[in-house]
Amino acid sequence: MAVHRLPSPSRALLLLVVTSLVSVLYVAPSQATGRGPAGTSTTPAGPAAPADRVRPDLFGIHVTIDPAAATAWPPFDVGAVRVTHSWRSVERTPGVYDWAALDAKVATVRAHGAQPMVILGGTPSFHAAAGFAPAPASPPRLAAYQAFVRAAITRYGDRADYQVWNEGNIPLFFTGSPAYLAAMTRIVGRAAHDLAPTATVVAPSFVVRGSAWLRAWYREYWSQEVGRYPVGRFVDAASISAYPMETEDPEDALALTQWARHVLDKLDFEGPLWASEVNYGASGGAPTTAPITMERQVAFVVRTFVLHATSGADRVYWFRWEPHITLNTSLSDGTGAPTPAGTAYGTVEDWLLGTRPTGCTVSKGVSACGFRVDRRTRRHVYWTRSGRTRVVRAPTGSRTMTDPAGTTSRVRRGDKVRVGLTPVMVETRARRGPVSR
After folding, report:
1. Each residue of 44-67: b (16+ CB within 10 Å) or e?
2. Which of 37, 95, 252, 315 would give a disulfide with 248, using CB separation of 3.0 to 4.6 Å?
């Protein structure tokens, strides 16, 4: 498996900044450091430094890739793609692997400059463990799973990330136990360590909204030990599906991430926590019953990435580029053209890439998150969660204001800026000398 990332000194400062805002905004999750190869651990790396810059792979997405047809790719840059392709589609006959379709998906993602994450799940009927139905959600026989995992990692090496399973605490996707899933996790971790040491191994995703049973399952998985080692020793990153309840919003999605991070902290897992799926209005497999306006969809996309970036998240995968009837926020119109929400994805990416988050506040109903571009330039993103219009004064050094459509206008210090549901970004630049750190 990959050598886990050392504790980032910049994240340490970011955590201090965001945690200090608890009384006015959001509790920041403890960020991150992973562990070394199975059975070892790493140590902190040096003194505190400025917050990590936002990297391209924060901006993940799900894209439906048809190997037999042209893929309608998003018109904005994508840093990472979660690749959906079932094990049972690769192994239709015991011991015989057909990689053609998965090869095409991985190649398509990489051709667009993104990092693929391959999900190692979906049990072939003939590999279901004893006592379980011949179904994709059944836990597999461990020997068969090991053979498949090692074959996949041998094939793709460090050209992909590897996720153990999808939504392990949802019976539609997995009917085994936390202990069994932990044993599967060790198989993936050991295979990556042996065959692709620089590849990233991602724990199964879990749903943590709404149900105490789902949260208990998550805690139980992360409490497992396999062969004397905590299950976290075999992965580089944890993950959740960050869908909030149907009528909830990005601040609620962030709260789920923070809760999941808190569980990991208590169990001494220091690796990053990824949101391997996020969207809004999710109602399980049924059509969403919580439709929202396009203005709100735009706001939700921007706020999702601004809030997660400020909290120190490494990666957030939007589900998905194509519209889906179970969700209320669509990036494309179904023909491959972006909706205003899809345009907003590219705009917020432009706002945040390469910046250093400086924290968020809420004052008189206005949320404000800051990002430092360089010593003299900063970006301030404003919105109201309630949607009510408020007026803020443009800060010192203000030069421009940009909306999620990418429209930019001039603004000067002291100008009245009307802030509402739709986030806006004000860029400031100091006249001379460095901005204080």
Report:
1. eeeeebebbebebbbbbbbbebee
2. 252
What backbone torsions phi and psi does residue 310 show, to the nearest 5 degrees?
A: -70, -30
Amino acid identity for residue 175 in this structure: T
**pTM of the predicted protein model:** 0.89
Tokens, residue 360: 């968020």
Query: What are φ and ψ of residue 284, in 5° steps?
Result: 80, -135
Q: Which two structure tokens, joined as six digits, stand for 274? A: 């990824």
d(CA 125, CA 335): 35
Contact 103, 90 (CB under 8 A): no
Contact 157, 199 (CB under 8 A): yes
Query: What tokens appear for 349 in the block?
Result: 């990416």
Cis, peptide link before residue 320, omega less than 30° from 0: yes
DSSP state of 68: T
Rounded CA gap, 413 and 360, in Å?
20
Cβ-in-10-Å burial (0-12, 13-18, 19+) of 264 comes to: buried
Domain boundaries, given as residue ranges, for the chain: 9-354, 357-429
Query: 357-429 maps to which CATH number?
Result: 2.60.40.1180
**What is the DSSP-derived secondary structure letter of residue 128?**
B
Give pLDDT, residue 359. Answer: 96
pLDDT along the chain (437 residues), means of 10: 39 36 35 37 32 93 91 95 97 98 98 98 98 98 98 98 98 98 98 98 98 98 97 98 98 97 97 98 92 98 98 95 97 96 98 97 97 98 98 97 98 98 98 61
Phi, psi (5° rounding) for residue 309?
-65, -45
Using CA atoms, how far residue 120 sits from 74, 130, 337, 360, in Å, is 25, 20, 31, 37
CATH 3.20.20.80 fits 9-354, yes or no: yes
Q: Which pLDDT does position 28 carry in this prediction? A: 35
pLDDT of residue 19: 37
